[in-house]
Amino acid sequence: ADSERVVLEQLHTVPFVLTSSTDKAAGPVSVELPLQADNLPLETVYERFQQTSHGFKDLLSHYLSGEKPKGFLETEEMLLVGSSLTGIGELAQRPDGTLCLQPPSNGAGYFLCLEDWQTLLSSLQSASSFWKWTALVCGLAAAAVVLRALRRAHRNRRLNREREAQRQEFEDYLRNHNQDEELPANACVVCLANPRECVLLPCGHICLCFHCFQALP
């Protein structure tokens, strides 16, 4: 089956700055590590797929590894000049007095997107609510599965205790029963004490009392 795997990845970034389109007095803010930002609106402007030529050693290694690369894909993505961006991150001042926007040192979110901050905040809140409800539903489902398993284990344990009590009762009866004593004609074939009360289907035999019938698997 075809699969995709990154063999070699080389990234080359070009620094850019953010400027205000309304406030001319505001100085430019350079952007650090833009590829680490979420929602970065890059457009693919160049894409080329180059097939690889295979020699005998390559074919042998491909046969042994079970993988045969088809080629290499080279792409180029860029942020269009004049794009209106909203940057959310950590604003720092360099020694030369210029400002730069960089990923927050405390691990908070770093965003570069085309939407304004209200739209971004709304989308993040919607995603947060979705994952909270998903976690709640998964937790309830897991709790239901655990409760069902506990209920089944409790029922099996109770049945095992009842069967053990019946077996012990039957052994005590055999131990204390006088072999010379005649059994009643309609005695249960299991406990030999209670009268026969249940009809077994589909054979129609009447050979068990109700107490022993409940102990059947």
From TrEMBL:
Keyword field: Membrane, Metal-binding, Transferase, Transmembrane, Transmembrane helix, Ubl conjugation pathway, Zinc, Zinc-finger
Cellular compartments per GO CC: membrane
One BP term from GO: protein ubiquitination
Domain of life the protein comes from: Eukaryota
Enzyme Commission number(s) from the entry: 2.3.2.27
Reactions performed catalytically: S-ubiquitinyl-[E2 ubiquitin-conjugating enzyme]-L-cysteine + [acceptor protein]-L-lysine = [E2 ubiquitin-conjugating enzyme]-L-cysteine + N(6)-ubiquitinyl-[acceptor protein]-L-lysine
Enzyme class: transferase
Pfam family, one: zf-C3HC4_3
Subcellular location: Membrane
Membrane topology of this protein: Multi-pass membrane protein
Location of the E3 Ubiquitin ligase MUL1-like domain: 5-145
Residues annotated as transmembrane: 130-150
Example GO molecular function: zinc ion binding
InterPro entries recorded: MDM2_MDM4_MUL1, MUL1-like, Znf_RING/FYVE/PHD
Protein name per its UniProtKB record: RING-type E3 ubiquitin transferase
Naturally occurring in which organism (per UniProt): Notechis scutatus
